[in-house]
Specification:
Elements (H helix, E strand, L loop, with lengths): L3 H13 L7 E6 L5 E3 L2 H8 L4 E7 L2 E6 L4 E5 L4 E7 L8 E7 L3 E7 L5 E5 L9 H4 L10 H10 L5 H6 L9 H11 L12 H20 L40 E5 L2 E5 L10 H6 L20
Parallel strand pairs: 2-9
Antiparallel strand pairs: 1-7, 3-4, 4-5, 5-9, 6-8, 7-8, 10-11
The chain binds a DNA duplex through loops.
Length: 305
DNA sequence: ACATATTCCTGGGGGC
DNA sequence: TGCCCCCAGGAATATG
C-alpha cells in the first residue's frame, strides 16, 4: 500500500534512474480508466514530445513536472506501480499506461486493482487537479502539535485513527503507518481526538515523524505489491510493530497484538501498551516492562518475527 | 455540517 | 481439488 514513504521512494528512484531531462516520445493508454483527466486521447496528445523536468511529491501524489509548467499527477492507491523499464522487458499484465522515452526506455504504470491513475494538468494551479490534492493537509514533517490540536478541536468526536487517515488533516499517512505511529505513541486508536491530552498529541506528532523517517530509510514497506521506481521492494515490513501482527507478541511488552475495526479499516494495536486515551494518568499506568530498546539509528530497528 | 458506510477493483486465502 | 465468498484499503461518493 503506497503511503508517503513508498511514494517518496518511487520519486527518488525515478530521479536516480534519470527520468528528469527525458522527453516523452509517445504515450500509450491501454486502459482509459487509468487516465482520470483529461480524455485518454488528450492525455496522450498532451504528453507526446514533452520533456520531463522533475519529479515531486505531495502526500501520496507523485507530481511529474513537464515542460511549459504542465504537471502529470499520479496516484498509486493500493496496487499501482510506476517504474522505469527497458522497452523490451516483458509486458506484465495490468499495465495500463506506457510512456516511451527518448532514451529507449519506458515509464510504465501497472495497477492490478485499477484504483490508481493520472491527471494531466496545464499547470500546478489547474482546477482540474484531483480534489484530494487540492485539499491536502500539511506534510507530516511540517506537522506541529499546534496543527494537531487545531484538527482535534475541529473533529473532537473522530477517533485519532480516523483523523490521521484524513488527508486533509495530515498528508501521506495510510493504514500501516497510522497503526505503527499510534503504537509508538502508546495511544489507543479508538481514542477520540477530544480525549487526547496535549502530551499525547505531542507524542503522536513525534511518532508519526519517526516512523515515516524510519520507513523511508528502509525504502518503504512491501507485502505484495509495492515496488520502487526500479522495480525493487522495500524492507520496512521487517520492522513493523503491530501492522499485520495480530496474535504475535508485542515487541515492547510481549502481549499479543489485537485487531479491530476503526474508521472502516483493519486496525492493529497492543491492548497493554495502548490503553491510553492520552490522559496523564492512563499514559503513566500503561508503562510496563519496557526492556532495553534496540539501538535505533534512523535506518534500522531489529528484524524479528 | 458532520460522521460513518459504501463503492470501486482484483487476487489471494479460508472454509467446506 | 475446486469453488464460493470474503477480505484487503485510498479516496470519492452516498447515507445517516
Amino acid at each position: 500500500m503506497p503511503e508517503l514513504p513508498e511514494v517518496e521512494t518511487v520519486r527518488r528512484t525515478l530521479l536516480e534512474g534519470g527520468l528528469a531531462g527525458r522527453t516523452i516520445r509517445r504515450a500509450t493508454v491501454a486502459h482509459a480508466d487509468a487516465v482520470r483527466y483529461p480524455s485518454a486521447d488528450a492525455f496522450a496528445a498532451g504528453l507526446a514530445g514533452r520533456e520531463i523536468t522533475g519529479v515531486g511529491r505531495r502526500g501520496k501524489y507523485l507530481l511529474i513536472g513537464l515542460a511549459d509548467g504542465m504537471v502529470l499527477v499520479a496516484h498509486l492507491r493500493m496496487t499501482g506501480r510506476l517504474w522505469l523499464s527497458d522497452a523490451d522487458a516483458e509486458a506484465l499484465p495490468h499495465t495500463h499506461v506506457v510512456l516511451d522515452l527518448d532514451d529507449g526506455r519506458q515509464l510504465r504504470f501497472r495497477d492490478v486493482r485499477r484504483f490508481g491513475g493520472f491527471h494531466l494538468l496545464a499547470d500546478a494551479g489547474d482546477s482540474a487537479a484531483p480534489q484530494g490534492l487540492r485539499e491536502l493537509g500539511p506534510e507530516p514533517q511540517d506537522l506541529t502539535a499546534r496543527d494537531l490540536a487545531s484538527a482535534c478541536r475541529r473533529h473532537p468526536k473522530v477517533s485519532i485513527k480516523g483523523l490521521l487517515l484524513d488527508q486533509r488533516a495530515v498528508a501521506g499517512l495510510g493504514n500501516i503507518y497510522v497503526d505503527e505511529a499510534l503504537h509508538r505513541a502508546r495511544v489507543h486508536p479508538l481514542s477520540t481526538c477530544a480525549s487526547l491530552s496535549a502530551k499525547a498529541r505531542g507524542a503522536v506528532v513525534r511518532a508519526v515523524q519517526e516512523v515515516l523517517a524510519e520507513a523511508l530509510a528502509n525504502r518503504g514497506t512491501t507485502f505484495l505489491d509495492f515496488r520502487d521506481g526500479t522495480g525493487e521492494p522495500g524492507a520496512f515490513q521487517e520492522f513493523l510493530r503491530v501492522y499485520r501482527r495480530e496474535g504475535l507478541p508485542c515487541r515492547t511488552c510481549g502481549a499479543p497484538i489485537a485487531k479491530l475495526r476503526v474508521a472502516g479499516r483493519g486496525t492493529h494495536y497492543c491492548p497493554t501498551c495502548q490503553k491510553g486515551d492520552g490522559s496523564p494518568s492512563s499514559t503513566a499506568r500503561s508503562r510496563t516492562t519496557t526492556r532495553s530498546r534496540p539501538a535505533r539509528t534512523s535506518s534500522a530497528s531489529r528484524p524479528a518475527r
